[in-house]
Amino acid sequence: MYRDGALQKEDFPVEDVSEFLAEPGTAVWVDLCEPTEADLARLAEELGLHRLAVEDAVSEHQRPKLDRYDGHAFLSAYAVRFDAGTGRLTTAELGAFVTPRALVTVRKDDGFDIEPVLRRWDRATELAKSGVPFLLHGLLDHVVDGQYEAVQALDDEVEALEDLLFADRPDSSELQRRSFRLRQSLTALRRVVLPMREVISSLMRPDLQVADELTRPYFEDVHDHARQAAEQTEALRELIATVRETQLNLQGNRLNLIMKKVTGWAAVIAVPTAVTGFYGQNVPYPGNGAPSGFWTSTVILVVLSVGLYALFKKKDWL
C-alpha cells in the first residue's frame, strides 16, 4: 500500500484492501499467483470487478488485450524469454485489473517473475505519487522490455543463420532445424508482441484516465518500445522467409553446377568410348593388326578428349 507516493505497508491480508482504499491518497497493489475463480471472488466483490473480467483472469491463453468495464479495466499481456541455447521461446501470461486506486496482477503461474517489476518501482520513486499509473507503467515497462530483448535475441539468431547459410560447406540439416525452430519462436513472439501496441495506445486514451500528466511521457516511451518490437518482429518474419528462399536457391544452384560438371565429364568420356568401340569392331579397318592402328587410335583419343575438355572449360561447363 502506497500513501502519497510512499510505501506504507506490505504483506497484508486481502481483506484489508477495502479498508486501505477508504483512506485518502492511497494506492494498493495486490499480486495473486495461480488463483482460482473462488480466490478472486472476495476481491472482486470489494473492488467491483466484472464477472467476465474475473473469468478472463483465471482462464489461460488469453490474447493480449485491454477490456474496459464500468469503473475498471482488465489487461492481458505476456512476458517472454528466448533461450539461445535451445532456440525456444517461453511465455508467461499475466492478467491485471486496473482501477482508479488499485492494481491487481494475476499471474497464471510462477513463470512470470515479479521481482524485476518491484525493482523498477523502487528505482522510480519520483513517479510513485501518481499511484496506479506509476504501478502500471513499471509493470508494462518490464513486459515490453522483455519482449524487445527477445526480438533482439531472435535477430542475432537470424544473423547466425545467414552466416551458416553462406558457409563453404553448409550443413543443410542443421540449417533446416534452426530455421524451423526460429519460425516457431517468431510465430509465438508475434502473437504476443503485435497486440501490445494497441493495448498501450488504448491505455493512453484520455477518457480512460490511466496515464496522468506525470506518467504520460513514460507511457509514450513504453509505447514507442512496443512499436519498435512489433516492427522488428515483422521484419524478422520477412527475413526468415528470405533466408529460406535463399537456401533453396543456393541448393538449386549447387545442384545445377554438379549436374553441369557430371554432364561435361560424361561427354569427355563418351568420345574415347566411341573410338574404342569403333576400333573394336570385327571387320578389317586401316591399321588392323598393326602397331600403327593402335597408335592412331590412341592419338585420336587423346586429341579429342583434350579438345573437348578445353572447349567445355572455355564455356564454363567444367
TrEMBL record:
<dbReference type="GO" id="GO:0000287">
    <property type="term" value="F:magnesium ion binding"/>
</dbReference>
<dbReference type="GO" id="GO:0015087">
    <property type="term" value="F:cobalt ion transmembrane transporter activity"/>
</dbReference>
<dbReference type="InterPro" id="IPR002523">
    <property type="entry name" value="MgTranspt_CorA/ZnTranspt_ZntB"/>
</dbReference>
<protein>
    <submittedName>
        <fullName>CorA-like magnesium transport protein</fullName>
    </submittedName>
</protein>
<keyword id="KW-1133">Transmembrane helix</keyword>
<keyword id="KW-0472">Membrane</keyword>
<comment type="similarity">
    <text>Belongs to the CorA metal ion transporter (MIT) (TC 1.A.35) family.</text>
</comment>
<dbReference type="GO" id="GO:0050897">
    <property type="term" value="F:cobalt ion binding"/>
</dbReference>
<keyword id="KW-0812">Transmembrane</keyword>
<feature type="transmembrane region" description="Helical">
    <location>
        <begin position="292"/>
        <end position="312"/>
    </location>
</feature>
<dbReference type="InterPro" id="IPR045861">
    <property type="entry name" value="CorA_cytoplasmic_dom"/>
</dbReference>
<dbReference type="InterPro" id="IPR045863">
    <property type="entry name" value="CorA_TM1_TM2"/>
</dbReference>
<dbReference type="GO" id="GO:0015095">
    <property type="term" value="F:magnesium ion transmembrane transporter activity"/>
</dbReference>
<keyword id="KW-0813">Transport</keyword>
<keyword id="KW-1003">Cell membrane</keyword>
<feature type="transmembrane region" description="Helical">
    <location>
        <begin position="262"/>
        <end position="280"/>
    </location>
</feature>
<dbReference type="GO" id="GO:0005886">
    <property type="term" value="C:plasma membrane"/>
</dbReference>
<dbReference type="Pfam" id="PF01544">
    <property type="entry name" value="CorA"/>
</dbReference>
